UniProtKB/TrEMBL annotation, chain A:
Function: Plays an important role in membrane trafficking through the secretory apparatus.
Domain FUZ/MON1/HPS1 first Longin: residue ranges: 86-208
Domain FUZ/MON1/HPS1 third Longin: 376-474
Organism: Asbolus verrucosus (Desert ironclad beetle)
GO CC terms: Mon1-Ccz1 complex
PANTHER family: SAND PROTEIN-RELATED, VACUOLAR FUSION PROTEIN MON1 HOMOLOG
Protein name: Vacuolar fusion protein MON1 homolog
Family that this chain belongs to: Belongs to the MON1/SAND family.
Annotated ranges, domain FUZ/MON1/HPS1 second Longin: 248-347
GO biological process: endosome to lysosome transport via multivesicular body sorting pathway; protein targeting to vacuole
From TrEMBL, chain B:
Name of this chain's protein: Ras-related protein RABF2b
Family as reported in the entry's similarity comment: Belongs to the small GTPase superfamily. Rab family.
Lineage, uppermost ranks: Eukaryota, Metazoa, Ecdysozoa, Arthropoda, Hexapoda
CDD domains recorded: Rab
Single GO MF annotation: GTP binding
Organism encoding this protein: Asbolus verrucosus (Desert ironclad beetle)
Keywords attached to this entry: Nucleotide-binding
Amino acid sequence: MSASLEVEPGAAPESVLVTTDSFESFDHMSSSLEEIKNLNAVAENDESNMENSNHVENFDDITENVSLNNEEDDFVQSKEWAAKKKHIFVLSLAGKPIYSRYGNEDKLAWLFGVMQTLVSFVQANDDAIRSIHAGDTKFVFLIKKPLILVAVSRTHESVNQLCSQLNYVFNQIASVLTLTRLNKIYEQRQNYDLRRLLAGVERLIDHLLDFSEKEPSFTLGAVQCLSLASSVRDSISSAIVGACNKIKNLVFAILLANNKLITLVRMKKYCLHPADLHLIFNLVQASESLKTAESWTPLCLPRFDASGFLYGHVSYLAEDCQACLLLLTVERDVFFALSEAKQRIVEKLRRNNCLEAINESLSAKEDTCIVAGFPELRHYLYKCKSTAQFYQPSLSPPYTKCHERLTNLYKRAHQLLHCSTRPLKLLFEKNSDQAILAWDTRGFELYVVFEPLVDTNGAINSVGRLLNWIKKREEKLFHLNAPTF
Amino acid sequence: MKTIVGKVVVLGHQGVGKTSTVIRYVENSFSQHITPTVGASFFSCKLLVEDITVKLQIWDTAGQERFKAMAPMFYRNANAALIVFDITSTVSFESMQGWVVELTRNVESPMVLCVVGNKIDLAKNREVSRDDAIQYARSIGATYHECSAMHDQGVGLVFDDIARGLVRMSGSHNDHNLKVYDTENIDNIMANSSELEATDTGKEETVNLSISSIAHGNTVKPKCC
């Protein structure tokens, strides 16, 4: 099978997102923040700067909340707890509990002890434990100094996929504290109880885990854009550029709605990694409180720069348009300048009828495969590699009621295409429930679920037609321009 | 007619109801399931004290410890502080006292202080007695209010009290950094400043800055937040 298209749908010469494949780690600590600050040679005032004052005050452990009731005691010993499909734990290298997806971590101290012992036992031989397989249960370990993250899973996800999920959890923690501060804390005191600094973050981690299990964007390492006519998207971008281009040190302006990207304007030279954007989506979705007023929020984007915070002016566009605008800067005291810029953006968008266009697209669902003229298709994911964006149609039966089954199909196919030992380029599999075709080319990845009776020729024909269909609509489905300030 | 613009910072332990109190006042609504504030939220509202318009610029800060380092950004140059605790939690009462210590240590200009005990709808679980709270508030020169953001009891009084405090302060102290304008001129100034914004995009100052730098009345430190 060969692509009969010259350029794959959704490809663009320049991408708003970083498109490197490695999702695993950010070992090299880039110092984009420093660079931006130096670039503009801002006279920093000497008042306590958040990223520079990393001293940890008050090392005393939490003494409140020790009164745990028996209910929690019972829960972690119950069958219900043991029957959970996927547990996620976070602990310090010293074995101190930090997070458990289910149940109170304090009640699980013994379990954290076992995990820490396993890790340090293998470490003693200059080796690192990656995973343990017992029956259908996988125990996956990710050691990211100064933390240990563990997944205990009975789902069919691969070790790599579980590892990537653990990575996201680590990034979420780094995102609220910065990696620098996290390291410093444990340098100063190895058995620090990190939970006192993570109050309220459990909620974000819980949400992130649910989110990453449901959303194909995490598996694909890509984001979905809100379908908009390219002229509308461009005029939104230019409204943002117009209102912000004189504001120094503004790094990213991101407009999103309903887990979809509307536009992303960036400072020249800097790109956002999809993994960072996923954390932003998670924060916005998990924080209802952002809807009530304009917020000023410190935010570390670990793939962009794990050493420090960006400051974000976060607000929803208007009562009648629930799109969320984030203006991210390295300056910590420009709230009012950004607040004004936001007003100007909203006025401009209202004048150009862009708010209406956004609302229309939000309320109109994407086409289902049948509506788009592909009755033999049930659902598909198309990812354009060069822009790290993907598109999927609306769910249609039988998956409207069992979304999880579809997600699992995709995860399995993704894993077969990406396993490190024997990655497949093309996969076609049929059983009594459905047929699935997965195809990994240089430019794109495509996963298509068919009715079970489709034959090979029919499938290949449909895929050809589908790619043409997407190509025709690429300007609407993808964010092809990469506007800068 | 005079207009006073005051910066108010809301401080207190996590979960005591800072955001709920502010939202009850500004929007007159309440949500049982509000999520914790991330960083800080900004609200503004207007009150009338006798014939003086008081504009409050309210910074509602996050109570979680990890945001503590951000607090100076908001209490610096504040004219009033609303320090909230939860009457059903001794911990929150003690934590509030920590905030007061930090404020008095770091803020030199005079400030209207207002201690607020929230959640009186849960009075049956009360851990902090009214007398203790009043006594404490007196000891730091603050007023004391009890309220329930949920049942909308006493919230209005808190903000009235702050507005009155600011009016008093504008009349008595000389070293306060309140912004005071004559209303007849403020409209002109506003118009000028927005014209400036429209044509001269190179100017990166905020409206507040551009207003204060040309307003007459009391002088203002050229700094926001």
